[in-house]
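tmp note - Recombinase domain-containing protein
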Amino acid sequence: MDDQGKSGYKGEHILEDSALGGFLKQLVDGSLVLSKNPKPLLVVEQIDRLTRLKPSKGKKLISLLLEYVDICVVEPSGTSYQLYADDGDDESLGSDIMLIVVIYSAYKYSANLSKRIKSAQKRSLADSVTKRVATRFGRLPFWLVRDGEYYAVVDKWGDIVKRAFDLLSKGLTSNQIADIFNDEGLEVPSSKRENDGKGVVIPDPKSVWTIARISRFFRDKRAIGEVKLKHHDAPIDLYPRIVSDATFYKVLELASGRRRNVVGKLTTVKGLLASYSYCFSCGARMHVDKRTRPSGYVDVRLRCSSVAQKTLKTRDCDCTYASREFERVFLEMVVDRLSESDVVKESRDDERETLKSKLATCENEIKEFEALLKTSNAPSLFRGLAVQEDLKKDLERQLGLLAKSQPVALKENYRRIVELANEALDPLNIEVHTMLRSIIERVEIYKSGDKNSVLLVELKSGIRRQAVKVKDKWTFIELEPLKELEATAN
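out:
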């Protein structure tokens, strides 16, 4: 197990997403079963690889481990070791008192080291603010390296950033530039930590250029040298400029001009997925919000409403996603993976009559509840009335959709969507959204980390399509219509 980069002093190494934390979770929940007699031997390079927590917490961690394994701690010199076991009177086994002493020493060392690191960071920050020299800590933009006391631009990566800004200033969008870079086979940078702990940037052959990678260039002002350092209030000019101020602010103006917010008689729409998108993981509605970046650029975010549910202790969803990451594949699915016949719902003669019958029954129920409420104030009557009123609204909505779902009109809407999708999207967003709303019933969205994503589209005709992204590659899947699934279940 390797938890390099995880702080044993802060307890990051025992979280579930770390190697040791994941190992412990498997032992505790029973998904990993080890031999009890004899117990396996866990060999540790030094005791501080296991814990640098406070002695009381460190002792609990070691005691939990000793329930499943015996521990062999190798001394720093590598010439000797000490064994620890949960039981046994062998003199070769370390005692609990000795273990606590070792844990305390590791914690004390880390506490002192943490103070020295903080002090060094403060000195480095002061030098950077007053002398404009390179900081001795923190991550850099991938196109920069530390060169002595100052920064230097890596030509290979710097040329890519300059070209991206040049194309952006000419009016191309982030997704168009990503396509150009991928078609030309330009390498994608990836950060990696070497054995000495220093970070390096190397090409990642498995990655591709995406909208997010291009948009990241102008979400802050690092391209024109401005950076906001940790523990310092105001941004400072510290990095070498990769583009001119004129180019940067022209790109920013063009990008901000594409804001998904058009006011008119058809109400305000912030994004293509507004009003009919839901969380694939928990089913909650996705809200569309604008977010202002440090550079002043405004992008559109999809936020799962479950984040506002304070009583919900655990969530499987990531809660917020960039709208553009899904809009492109959503349009591709609708335009390239569907046909005019898919958007037309098969009409049944008895469907309208069935809905009207249900609506009449619901209206009678409402009248009965209203009559009972004239003589009683029982809470159950108010709840029953509210349920019937909600049902009435839903039935009226379904009847309205039937009235509007004329095959000819739906096919015309679909043809208009295809036409608009091949033109400049942003200024026509309100019309595209209106057309899509006429054929789309529901879109479910999910994203896990930077790699895996799910987009599920349900049309009002019952057709369902799903797109799954694994390692930057989207795969389209045809799903069974919901009505067929429901019939099978019944």
